[in-house]
């Protein structure tokens, strides 16, 4: 059996843990703080450092997609490098479909930290008061009209409905639920690589055009 290491974003913790448990997979997982997404350069450095550290593996899996270009230039000296052929985790959960314009997507993980939408709204109102705060929130979220709960088997979507309703009150957006899909991530963890994945042999760098090739498998 191949020695495989998974480098995963904490934003995908529910989905990754669900898949590992579902298939009883015994795989080493290295979690990377989702907050690094706010600095693609720092995220790139973190990922490359981890790839370099785990070269004893035969395959290094990344749950990441393009993710603000943070993965561009990543390279593994000895191990194969496999990642998802998607712009970001939302595209992964939508079977590689791009987000719909004006939609703000949420999973459970998107509700739990300081940068989440309700927490941001509450911070703005506390700092600036209702009138000014309302204007600031309009500037922040005026381009969105719908809050979309991406419902996957990895978590109970009903348990975040209250949170999403509160976000709707703050922003004026309507709320809808959309079925999410774990297939791309699940096949990554199972080793069933296909058109939703990029496979790089040792020494090959991640390039932008790889995310737009039709076959998804690059030797």
Describe the structure.
This protein has six helices and eight strands, in the order E-H-E-H-E-E-H-E-H-E-H-E-H-E. With 219 residues, the protein is of the alpha/beta class. The strands form two sheets. Strands 2-1-3-4-8 form a five-stranded mixed β-sheet, sandwiched between helices. It has a three-stranded parallel β-sheet with strand order 5-6-7, covered by helices on one side. Helix 1 packs across helix 6 and helix 4 packs parallel to helix 5 (161-171). The longest helix is centred in the middle third of the chain and has 25 residues, at 117-141. It is elongated and about 60 Å long.
Give me a quick take on this structure.
The chain contains six helices and eight strands. With 219 residues, it is an alpha/beta fold. Helix 1 crosses helix 6.
Note the topology.
Blueprint (H helix, E strand, L loop, with lengths): L3 E6 L3 H11 L4 E5 L7 H14 L5 E4 L17 E5 L4 H5 L9 E4 L10 H25 L4 E6 L9 H11 L2 E6 L3 H8 L6 E4 L19
Parallel strand pairs: 1-2, 1-3, 3-4, 5-6, 6-7
Antiparallel strand pairs: 4-8
Helix pairs in contact: 1-6, 4-5
